[in-house]
Design goal:
By secondary structure, this protein is α/β, with parallel strands linked by helices. It has one domain: 3-Layer(aba) Sandwich (Rossmann fold), CATH 3.40.50. The strands form two sheets. A six-stranded mixed beta sheet has the order 6-7-8-3-9-10, sandwiched between helices. A four-stranded antiparallel beta sheet has the order 2-1-4-5, covered by helices on one side. Strand 4 and strand 5 form a beta hairpin. 41% of the residues are buried. Bound molecules: adenosine-5'-triphosphate (ATP) and magnesium ion (MG). Magnesium ion binds next to helix 1. The site of adenosine-5'-triphosphate (ATP) has 12 residues, from strand 2 and helix 1.
Length: 252
Amino acid sequence: MKDVKIYTENLSVFFDYIQALNNVSIQIKANRVTSIIGPSGCGKTSFLRTLNRMNDLMHGFKMKGEVKIDGVDIYDDNIDVVNLRKLVGMVFQKSNLFPKSVYENLIFAPKLNNIKDKNKLDEIVERSCTQASIWDEIKDRLNDNALNLSAGQQQRLCIARALSVNPDVLLMDEPASALDPISTSRIEELIFELKKDYTILVVTHNMQQAARISDFTAFFYLGQLVEFEKTTKIFTNPSNKQTEDYITGRFG
Ligand SMILES: Nc1ncnc2c1ncn2[C@@H]1O[C@H](COP(=O)(O)OP(=O)(O)OP(=O)(O)O)[C@@H](O)[C@H]1O
Ligand SMILES: [Mg+2]
């Protein structure tokens, strides 16, 4: 199917003897926002990290099943993992900027990808900051230490940094959970803007946020994908009792 960007079939993930995901089959649509919800430890982060092979770095990691992006098996032996991570960017709960200037943070990944020309790098910095809706705030602060920015600005800078290498997919693991309501709504607006150009997966513990920002919602429980539906359906008429209990706050 043309509009399917990410496809998993019977995906199971293990860390030594711990099973983090159990037979997850899902089809994530391109240029849509998909929320991943579920109680702590249900496998949300493990799922995101499977999609850009970040789990490969974890001790005892094993996976079974299939993960395809644009129809390509990303666990195939001849996949270039560095290139994959360029296409599938990630933003974490806490900003993980380097203690360097704003500018250096933004050009780090492009430079790794062999872009050296100063004009080209300047262009990338402006483009990615504009897309991450932070350009006006930092265009005069490019030489400041990135860690001096406010938490909300740091988080948008992390998004800009992820966008600096032109990804297709953006994975966001609780991107706004450490932020005040105004910074949170800026991130939410940004996510809405970005879906024109990117396929976005957002892990969130905030049900109102999932309802506001996403087209589709996936509810995970104990490593299984319990329900995956249009967000409006999940929040008004979930098919599964566990989903209903979770979104109404009866457990989790
Ligand atoms: N690197 C690892 N080594 C061992 N076990 C892990 C590792 N990463 C995750 N797990 C285990 O896998 C399961 C799923 O963890 P995961 O971090 O994906 O949950 P989560 O849904 O993101 O939870 P939270 O909402 O608390 O962030 C848990 O039992 C966790 O302890
Ligand atoms: Mg997590």
